[in-house]
Amino acid sequence: MTPKKNELVTIEITDMGSGGEGIGRADGFTLFVKGAVVGDVIEAKVLKAKKTYGYAKIEKIIRPSEGRVEPVCPVAGRCGGCQLQSVSYASQLAWKERKVKGCLERIGGVIFAESSEKASGVCTDEGIDSIVKESSVKEADGMDKPFFLPILGMEDCLAYRNKAQFPVGRDKNGKIVTGFYAGHSHAIIPSTTCAIQAPVNEVICKIVCEHMEQYSIAPYDEENHTGLVRHILTRVGAVTGEVLVCLIINGKTLPKAEILAKRLKEAVEGFSVAKTGDEPVGTSQAIKKANSSEAAHLVLKGVCLNINREKTNVILGNEIIPVWGDTYITDYIGEVSFRISPLSFYQVNPKQTKVLYEKALEFAGLTGNEIVWDLYCGIGTISLFLAKKAKQVYGVEIVPQAIEDAKQNAIRNNITNAEFFVGAAEDVLPVKYKESGGSMRADVIVVDPPRKGCDEALLQTVVNMEPKRMVYVSCDPATLARDVKYLEEKGYQLVKAQPVDMFPFTEHVECVTLLQRKNT
Fold it and tell me: Which of 70, 102, 143, 308 has the fewest C-beta atoms under 10 angstroms from its C-beta?
């Protein structure tokens, strides 16, 4: 029987959807419930009912799941950023592992070799190494089924983001506030703290709001396209401690910007006293606890403006204007340093980025003699990792500023065997291949596409270039599975899949896969 809108039903949550919502059934009717955890028994109110499924909200938790925990964030559930604040970290990892494997099996048609290893919280390097060795032995014995490796999680999964974007607006009393968008809307949930972002951001937001109030600077009104300050963007170097503050504005200048820069410099340097045990004023208990040692070496590297006068929900414009200091920070992944600007694509979780890229490098199997193409290369993060082990690396990225950063990053790291091209990977690679008369080859091709996955024309060109190995880094299990299926139909075989948790408390998960050309 189909329940009606506003009807109360008692259900047990038995699964989680792709967006992290709980799934339960009332007399066989499937209900998706935001904030519900597998194992919960709840009373739910039906919000919408379709033919075979519907949506509901929690009215009362009758029996909480063993995997349910108290959220560390005061606006969890209202903010649209974290979907899994109520789920224990071990349960998050287990679900993400099932999510990736399920997509590869269901969409990609992959049949994995059996493994006794299961996800159980944070996986150690030793545990992963043993699985890799096991797979090598079985492959050598002629077993052609790929291996699904246990997810790599974090030991400390708080305060991991090195980039933050805070929309600026007014609360119901007219006070200027920063916060986060509610799920599926542009309504701002006022907040200055975030459990997964750098603790110093709270102080930065507080100073900017005070400056705006003092000098009567209006926040941007999205509906009327009026007001000046749209967003506050920050970058924080995990290794260097360098901080960049960028205000996205609906104009060309910011009143008293030099005064604001001076205040921000004092605030960031003042925040660094956290190392001594003193607690920054106004920082919430959850965030102080997250990573106070991070504040020990913070230094404001620069303050800048980003000009966005378009009536759009796209956050950043293309023009950067310096106010004080530099318009970028420098940080490291392993031994490779990177220059990171507000417009740069750079992974937001530096600790796990190192894990992810080292796994990609391992899967690439470089000996120093290979020609490698790195598609969707961003500012050259993976490219420069690979260049240290390859003969020659070519990177392709559609954003001109990112390619300029990639070239500068190669220079600063004394890497001379990396060349970069501006353009969409699905355009550049086929054109280069055609210009070569079909003779262009690669030993290894690495792709790290956006969520939509790879364009079919790009994949066909990859197949035509006949690389021995392909390393596919994915942020969307469904499109990864689709592309793996295409590649397997074109003569490639999935060897290994390694999920990596880059985004604790959220629905998102990355995966590194190794595909190998058959008959090589």
Answer: 70
